[in-house]
Amino acid sequence: MYDSGTTTIGEYTFIYSGHSSADKTRSAHGVAIVLNKQATTAWKNLGSTWEAVNERIVMIRLASKPINVTVIAIYAPINPKNQQQAGSTTDPFYEDLQKTINKVPKCDMLLIIGDFNARVGQEQHRTSSNVVGPHAVDTINDNGEHLVDFCSINNLIMCNTFFQHKPVHQKSWMHPGSKTWHMLDYTLVNKKFRSSVEDVRVHRTAAGVIGTDHHLLRIKLKFHLNSRRKIIKNQLLRVDRKKLKNEQLKMAFQAQLNQRLQQPTYSPQTIDQKYTNFVDYVRQTSGSIFQEDGNGRKYKEWLTDEILDVVDKKAKAFLDWQNFRGTSLEAKYRKSYCLLRNLAKKKIEARQVEYWDELSMEIENAIKQHDPATAYAIIRRLRGGRAKIENFPIFDKQGCLLTNSEQRLNRWKDYFNDLLNVPSIVDQTTIQQIPPATITTSEQRRQDKTPTLSEVQCAIKQMKNGKAPGNDGISIDVIKAGGLPMAKWLHEIFVDIWENEIMIKDWTTAILIRLYKNKGDKKICDNYRGISLLVVTSKIFSRIILNRVQGLLDKQLLEEQAGFRSNRSTIDQIFILKMIKEKSHNNNKPLHMCFIDIMKAYDSVDRTLLWQICRHYGLTDKIVQMLILLYQDTKAQVRINGEISDPFDINSGVQQGGIPSCILFNVLFDFIMRRVIEQVKLLGITGIKMAYGSNDFFHPATMPLIWNSSFNALNK
């Protein structure tokens, strides 16, 4: 078995394939391609296409002009000692490589790079001059014969052998026994693109930094990567969290907001125009005041100038040692290199201990100050090299593997479209038979009054910090930093919505990201759950509505409901369950218990039914109309690796992540359970006991017959 995937470290993207850490062997397998920021963009522009063929071959495709480039990185088996070994290692390797090349589009420039463990010489140049150049420096071995045959069949050339350099800039590895240098690493390219290769040579200094017995092989190619990034509307607004706590910067931000509010508006604007102006100004102003410091650091955080200086000296000493290998002075220069290598190792270890102590103290202080967001931000920053799932291939509905990013994005869109749109089975006659509640005049005025500035401020204060923003990119942290001027501006927008009953279009579109459940195959969509990112300002507006009706609704819910209610917890339900079991055991009475989790409970809610039930529980037509506006024409877009899918409609269920969603579902579930209890009573069964937390509940009974009656009523 081999392990493969993609990961990001800093500005670099790694596409790798090799043995898993649980199956570690000597360094005889494993290959990777590393892309810088520009190459990563070119890779993504062509769909982030990659394939890990096995632990020795990995392939990617880059968008470039005038033609695209397919890059294959390989690590060939060592030269076989006999024919039997060749049949078990070398032959299968070249068969897999041939199958990989057959998949490459004919119009692409093909670039194969890696350690072929092959040697070719002047004899091969004379017999196969179209493959091997005049600067081959070795005597052919078995792997060399395989490589020459492979190149001849596929019209490839061995670029190393076509450029004249000093021997030290041609040979990349020295045999530890014979002390003889050899050319084992090669660059292969289609013969028709030979002119695109400008130079191939060895650089010896790099090996001293990373401690490898192979020298770095550099290839200069002449083509233009298509690295222009796709522009995404309202990208995530990146601000410095520490600056958001700076009182002077917050005052400067609020002063600019206040100045903007005082500017007169001469022409009438729609609600969407007002909100667009709000978003543009807040993003521009907060981005300039709270902007992250772009220090351009590319090194590890613990690296110091002193360590970098020692590492440079070590690299120079390694180069001196390489220049004198095989001579009488080799021992002297090797000793000098080993001393500097040990010194660099000691300094790095000491600095890392000091660095981790500093970070631990910083995390501890953040927790003591009740700022877990900062603590987790530090931890996430330290986990920058973790494996990601953005470019992980997935299966389509037919079970075919999708590696192209556009195909994967469309697959995720189709998956969530099917998941979040559940056909309604509720009879409309049943909905019409639910009577609305009788509401007093004072209660009507309380619910229907226009939102006040104090309500807006209270709602903003109730929002939790550090939450991801919606499609406008504005987080709650920025909203809170705006203080009173921000609240006034939002109050003006909310009043317009309330009085004219017209909703902002951006509020009804959610951004869906998927989260792996940490179980099952990562290639199967069912092993992920979706998280909806809603616009923060819409959640503030929803919070105002919830604050007005939560007390009214909460006091009407059955006592058995413990989900999403203040001063209640499922811990209470677990305690009740244990007590029932204990009492039944002590009194020697039979006990039957059934545990039920309603599948797709939140996503399958019939909205028309929900609004009528809300009226039944005492919500006014104004409040219900505001809720309808929040759910009217709701859409979602899937975001994968920064790319956004086309929107799709969501016609059922309550919004995931919506502020009133939990209480709305509790009201719906409460109405259903009351009807179940009433219907069971008609059958002469009394004393029905249930306990539930949101959509999960357990039903204890003394006999299974009671279950049947309850479940039949619930199905109806």
TrEMBL record:
<dbReference type="InterPro" id="IPR000477">
    <property type="entry name" value="RT_dom"/>
</dbReference>
<dbReference type="Pfam" id="PF00078">
    <property type="entry name" value="RVT_1"/>
</dbReference>
<dbReference type="InterPro" id="IPR036691">
    <property type="entry name" value="Endo/exonu/phosph_ase_sf"/>
</dbReference>
<dbReference type="InterPro" id="IPR043502">
    <property type="entry name" value="DNA/RNA_pol_sf"/>
</dbReference>
<feature type="domain" description="Reverse transcriptase">
    <location>
        <begin position="521"/>
        <end position="680"/>
    </location>
</feature>
<protein>
    <recommendedName>
        <fullName>Reverse transcriptase domain-containing protein</fullName>
    </recommendedName>
</protein>
